[in-house]
User: Fold this.
Amino acid sequence: MPFRERHIKHFTTLASIKKPRIFTAVAIILVVTITATIAFLTMTPWVQTTSGPGIVTTLDPNDRQQEINALVSGRIERWYVRDGARVKKGDPILKVADNDPQLLERLDAEQQQLLEQRNAAASALATARIDLERTQRLFEDGLAARRDYEQATIRVEGLRADLAAAEAALTRQQVDISRQSLQLIRAPRDGTILRLNAGDVATTISAGSAVATFQPDGAKRAVELFIDGRDVALVKPGDDVRLLFEGWPAVQFSGWPSVAVGTFEARVLTIDPTAQPNGQFRVLVTEVDNPEVPWPDQRFIRYGATVRGWILLETVPLGFELWRQLNNFPPEFTGEASSDGFAPQ
Assistant:
């Protein structure tokens, strides 16, 4: 008889107590659960990510929201558009009238005077050249003095300078008239007038004043993401990104992007070398070529809309990721070559 059973018989109460089956079941369940949990944390892959907020923008700065400026000073005479109006290239937006209503008439009259001066100078120069040629022939034949020939030459040069001055004055006058003809401001390309910045008719504006805010059509969208400086060293051009657009229904699993629903593919294009004033770094991402699910149409995702992005990094075991998150460590770094071709030491 075993030693334990031989001595338990002396304690009748202890011998009468039987071990409950539920304890055995609970012990088995705990052992199985702990084993399964360890196996799950060790063998389950998890894609590390670095995330940050962002906004929808454009790649080409010419496609971004821009101001339309007045080219001449004057007062607003007529608006041809309103807020939210769609315009084609060359469509009139605003007509500006000069503060002097008779300025164009005065400029036209001044131009006529300058034209007459130019024509008179040209005629005088032509006559002086004929006289110079005649004096030169007489001088060569010995019938005219050298002084007369030199004076004729000087007179031709002086009249040539007068003609050049008259043509310069006429050119300046034509520039003034051309500037005044720019009083009708037109749309630079197809797009939308977002808002009108100037006042009502009879409002005085100066040259260079912003009169309207304009958004061109046909821009290629991109997204500006802002990520923490702790993770920016692990991001490189070409990394895959998952985007969650504002107002778009989605279920996101950052560690398992393959099972996420409602997110869209993107790719890192560039990373700013310097931080923003808040210490975050800007990462510019674009849509991939031939994506499985293209980005939503522009009428759903407009410029300036808020975005949440996850840049996909290394794949590690789930247990390691939990340990990293609890200790607030940066993501795993494999030591691969950086984008400039050099591997960290």
